[in-house]
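Bit of a strange request maybe. I'm writing a small parser for C-alpha cell strings and I need a real example to test against, not something I typed by hand. Could someone generate the C-alpha cells for this chain?
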Amino acid sequence: MNVTPTSAANAAATTAASTKSEKAETPNAMAGDFQTFLTLLTTQMRNQDPLKPMESTEFVAQLASFSGVEQQIRANDRLDRIFEVLSGGSAGGLAAWVGREIRAPGKADFTGEPIDVARTPVPDTDSAVLVVKNDFGQEVARRAIDPLATNVSWDGQDGYGATAAHGRYSFTIESFAGETLADRQEGSVFARVSEVRLAEEGPVLLTEGGGSVALAEVTGIR
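Reply from user aminoacidic:
Good idea to test on real output. This should exercise your parser:
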C-alpha cells in the first residue's frame, strides 16, 4: 500500500472539517474518520522503504496534521453542544436564562436592600446561626435564626448594629444540636446570569460579579 504523507493528512483533515448538512456526520462517524487517519499513518510507516525512511520533517508534519484533525473533531463536537443548548435542545434552553436571576449557593451584592438567603433545615437540631462574611472572608455579622426556617433575611447590619458597606457578601448557616455543631452549609442567594458557558462537566452559568454556578446547583429562577 503506497500512501503519501500529504494525501493521508489532507484526506483526513478534509473529512474532519466538513460542515454540517441535512445528512451531517454524527460524533461516532467523526471518530471513525480520526481512526482512519491513524490507520493510514501507521500503515505508511510500517510499509516504508527501510533504506529510505521517512524524514523527520515529514514525520513532524504528519504529527501536526494528526493533531489538527483531532482538534477539528473536538471543535465540531463543542459546536454541536453549543447549538443544542442555544436552540433549547437541552436543560430547558439555557440561553433563555441569560438576564434572569437564579438562586444557588454563592455570594450576593449588598446595595442597601435586605438579602434573602435560602437554606435547608437540618433534622435533630435545636438552634441555628447565620454567619455573614465580606468579600475578604472577614466575618461582619452573626445572628441567631429559626432552625426550621427555609428562608432568612439579612438586613445589612453588622455585629455592632451599623449598616455594612456596599459590596459582595457570603452567607453560611451553622446548625447546632445543643452545644454541638451538627452542620454548616452555604446559603443560597439570587444572582443575575450574564453568560452561559459549556465546560467539560456540563453547562455553567456565569453571574454578574464573576460568580459561576453549575446547573445542578440551581434551586430557583425568577
